[in-house]
Amino acid sequence: MATNRETRESSTFLAWQSHFGVQMQVSRLRQSYARDEQGSGVQRVDASGLIVQLWRLRLAAVMSQRIDGSPTSVTPAIEAFDSANPGLAKLRHVTMHFDEYALETDSRRNKIGDPARLIEARDLWDLRSEPDAFTWLEVRVDYPSVEIAARALYDAIQGDNNSQLY
After folding, report:
1. How far apart are CA 129 and CA 136, in angstroms?
2. Nearest to 80 by CA among 163, 162, 150
3. Average model confidence (pLDDT) for the chain?
4. Residue 28 belongs to what H/E stretch?
5. pLDDT digits (tens, 9 = 90+) for 15-73
6. Which of 30, 41, 115, 126 has its CB surrounded by the most CB atoms within 10 Å?
7. What are phi and psi of 64, to 5 degrees?
8. How far apart are CA 145 and CA 86, in angstroms?
9. Pairwise CA distance, residues 69 & 116, whole Å
10. What is the pTM of this model?
11. What is the DSSP string of 91-135?
């Protein structure tokens, strides 16, 4: 089992890497929108990348939370991050299990629409872009909100881990 020190170092590095990734993906999404590439393959790649980086940052916070004797400031930061990113778990699940949705297997669990129905292959391609956001699977990802929430979570992890390594 990893020591507290090893977990602290790992969560700090993952938080830094993921926070940097969030900044990079948001920048790329804004640039591709400005170049009039809405709905392009570039936008899809960067939207998926942002979803993954946001989830990895959240995982770093959960790792930090599990360190014995660590402060608890990361717990409310995770709750605030989740509130600022509603639907992130659904986007992450569909991104990571894309094949299940593209093939419309029975293992799909996320729904959209009214009345709610399982996400289908045709839904995967409906990415709508704006200058400061994208919407996919009925979840709007607002870049300014994402940046603020990601920074706050990163700062909480750094504070809990008593580290300014990155």
Report:
1. 9
2. 150
3. 91
4. helix 4-34
5. 999 999 999 999 999 998 888 766 678 889 999 999 999 999 999 999 988 887 766 78
6. 30
7. -60, -35
8. 11
9. 43
10. 0.92
11. HHHHHHTHHHHHTT-TT---EETTTTEE--GGGGG-EEEETTEEE
